[in-house]
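User: I'm new to structure prediction. If I give you an amino acid sequence, what do you actually give back? Let's try with this one:
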Amino acid sequence: MAEMAFNRQVPVYASKSDVVCALLREMIISGELATGEQLKQRDLAARFGVSQTPIREALRRLESEGLVVNDTHKGTTVARSQLSPAEDNAQARAALEALGARLAVRQISHEDLEALRALNAVMADMPEGHPNYAAANRNFHFKVYEIARSPILMSLMRLLWNSMLLGPMTARAHRESWLQHEALIDALAAGDGDRAADVMHEHILGHRPHQGCC
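Assistant: Good question. You get back a string of structure tokens that encode the predicted 3D arrangement of the chain. For your 214 residues, that looks like this:
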């Protein structure tokens, strides 16, 4: 079990607690760990093949993020929500990404538009299932956040994307995502903040069978 966990696609982190935190966060977001489920340090240590120290540090970090709750009597449990963790994440990203698109309209330059078109063109040439598609999609979205020039927004978006080890996943065809990106670029080029926000919001929430669209 432990070997399987650490063979998952995890970015390079500085410590075991970082790896454990990322794995647990993804398990909570994906619903693999159910809301209200008890998280025993000893069991998690055995599951991931580490001591209880990195488990304890990871749970403290997840508590600060609001993903787990520590109770004197019940111990640590996955935080309860009326939405699934994946839906929760998608709703938050939709609101923040719409804000990012609206802010980007105020700041975007000709060079920024060309950069977005170039990033989307890379995705247009990728067939379904291409291994680099997720990274290309992330680059496009983070370019929009960069153009928005809001450090707080950028920090929040990194947290939301990093909570999913493989990034947002969807059954939507690549061409459909590419076309929606094109619609966003057109709205940004036209200086239409309302349209840009609407396109981005629909892009995130319009089709999300897994962890939110991308």
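You can read the tokens as a compact description of the fold. Here is one thing that stands out. The chain is about 65% helix and 5% strand.
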